[in-house]
């Protein structure tokens, strides 16, 4: 990541990729508070793997890698 873009690309700090994926899903509004299982069942490990193609992590801090 170019030094002048670090602040723009920074996405926050998370415990793991799954927590990051959940936060992104929540931010874009795809999680419904009133939905019930099985409609809310998501394989967060798989979702995180897919999401991480466009993001990078360093010591718990997440950054967009596409710009």
Strand content range:
15-25%
Give the integer mean of the pLDDT values: 90
Instruction: Label the structural class.
Output: alpha+beta
In the predicted model, the low-confidence regions spanning at least 5 consecutive residues are none
Q: Total number of β-strand segments?
A: 3
Radius of gyration of CA atoms, rounded to a whole number: 13 Å
DSSP helix fraction: 25-40%
List the helices and strands in order: HEHHEE
- Overall outline: elongated
In DSSP terms (H or I, runs of 4 or more residues), the helix count works out at: 3
Strand order of the largest sheet: 1-3-2
What is the makeup of the main sheet? 3 strands, antiparallel
Distance between the termini: 9 Å
Task: Write a compact overview of the structure shown.
By secondary structure, this protein is α+β, with helices and mostly antiparallel strands.
Describe what this molecule looks like in 3D.
- The chain is α+β, with helices and mostly antiparallel strands and 67 residues long.
- It is built from three helices and three strands.
- A three-stranded antiparallel β-sheet has the order 1-3-2.
- A hairpin with a 2-residue loop joins strand 2 and strand 3 (61-64).
- Helix 2 packs across helix 3 (44-51).
- The longest helix is centred in the N-terminal third of the chain and has 11 residues, at 17-27.
- The protein is elongated and about 45 Å long.
- The mean pLDDT is 90.
Write the SSE topology.
Elements: H1 6-9, E1 10-13, H2 17-27, H3 44-51, E2 55-58, E3 61-64
Antiparallel strand pairs: 1-3, 2-3
Helix pairs in contact: 2-3
């Amino acid at each position: 990541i170019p030094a002048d873009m670090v602040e723009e690309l920074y996405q926050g700090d998370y415990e793991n990729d799954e927590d990051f994926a959940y936060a992104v899903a929540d931010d874009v509004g795809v999680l419904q508070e009133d939905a019930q299982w099985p409609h809310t069942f998501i394989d967060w490990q798989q979702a995180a793997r897919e999401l991480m193609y466009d993001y990078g992590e360093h010591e718990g801090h997440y950054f967009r890698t596409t710009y």
